[in-house]
Every structure is written in C-alpha cells, then in structure tokens.
Amino acid sequence: RVLREAFASRGLAAYLVGGAVRDGLLDKETGDIDVSVQGKTSEVGPELAALVDGRFIVLDAGRDLSRIVTRGEGAGRVIDLSPLKGGIEQDLGRRDFTLDAMAVPLNEPESPEQEPRLADPWGGFRDLREGVVRAVTPSVFADDAARLLRGPRLAAQLGFRLEAETARSIGANAHLISNVAPERVRDEVLKILSYPRARDSLLELDRLGLLCLVLPVLAGTKDVVQPKEHQWDVFRHSVETVGQVERIATDNRP
User: Fold this and answer.
1) Of the candidates 42, 40, 52, 39, the residue with the CA atom closest to the CA atom of residue 4
2) Which residues of the chain have a pLDDT value below 50?
C-alpha cells in the first residue's frame, strides 16, 4: 500500500513483479518483493526506503539494482528494485518462468471496487491454474544456468509439474550447471530437499540429467548391486532413504 501510494503520487511507472504476484494469486503469504520501476532505482530508492522505514542498499551500480531492507515493525522484509527497460512486456520477457512473468501496476490508486490489472503476456495465470512450470523462452537456461535447478525447485515448492518442452530443454542444457557458482547450486538443492516429496524431486532431477552433476558422489552408486536382502541398487536405495526419512519425520509431527 505504501509503495502504491508513493508511485501513484509521483506519477512513476512501477510494477510489482515475480514471486509476490504469483503468491498473491495463489493466496499464499508472500516473501520478498520485487519491483520494476521507471527511472533510476538509485534515485528513487532512498526516498522509498524512508517511507517504509528501511535501509537502502545498492546491489549492482552498473545494472542499477537496489534493495531496501525494512526495519522496525516487520523488520527484515526485502524489496528489490530493478529499472524498467523498454516497457513491462519487454521486462517480463527477460524473466525465466511464466509463473514469475506476471506484473501488477503500482502507480495506479488502489480501488476496493475492482481487482488490480494483471500484465500477463506469457500466459502465467493459465499455467498457474493448470499447475505447470513453463520457461518463458528456450534461451532462459543458457542466459542463467541456475534456472536449470530453479525450474524443478519451483515445481517441488508449488506441487506443480514441469511442462514437457521445458523439461526437455532442461535435459538438453543440464551440462551448463557446472558453470553455476557452488553456493547457488547448494541453495537450490537444499530448498528442493526441504519440500514435501523430496524423493520424487530427486528422481526428477535424475531423469533431467542433473542429479549426478550436482551430487557427483551418486554417479558411482548406479547399478551397484547389493546383497539379496536389498530391493534396489545403491543409487536407488540412497534416494529411497530420503523418502523414508521424510515419512518418519512427517508421521512424528505433533
């Protein structure tokens, strides 16, 4: 509300984009907020930070990426600001998955009589209803190979499925994951393991050709036969163990 009033009163084009829009449409509590704003974020950011009682941080001066971290009540909320380049449709076309390529304008006064307009040039709302994670364009994985894991992670997080062509594209580009910083790979894998049905997610990563690239130790366990008391080879036994740990932990929750 504060951001909407700030942009509307100044006549600045600005859009709420990404996960906050997706989560709002799913009626879920949203996490961090991403805003694409007309003009330089380094100029508008400090004023916005003062309005929300936040600290302004320059993330990347060259690309004009900024962040506001709130203080006081609701401390720790993050608002990421990026410049709006070439209009909202072009901005959304540079994003990774259709679910996160939707936007709501923040420079229009809030009206209780009508829903906010939704900018959705890539069919994200349709995919949201159908439970599908779909890449905006085939090039998204070459542009940022961390998206190879982000796609399956989104599917695990939301309980959705990867769209067939997106899954094929992930498999074809799986080798690019070696170019991603290890901490980014770690963060995505740990998130996948934290969601329900982690066993199924690991098997999906294996089908996509990613699992043994991010956890190379598993490559040597495939087709390793165990004594007759065991049903699976060492690889499948290891993956199934994750599922059994999850089952035990879930069954024992208060």
Assistant:
1) 52
2) none
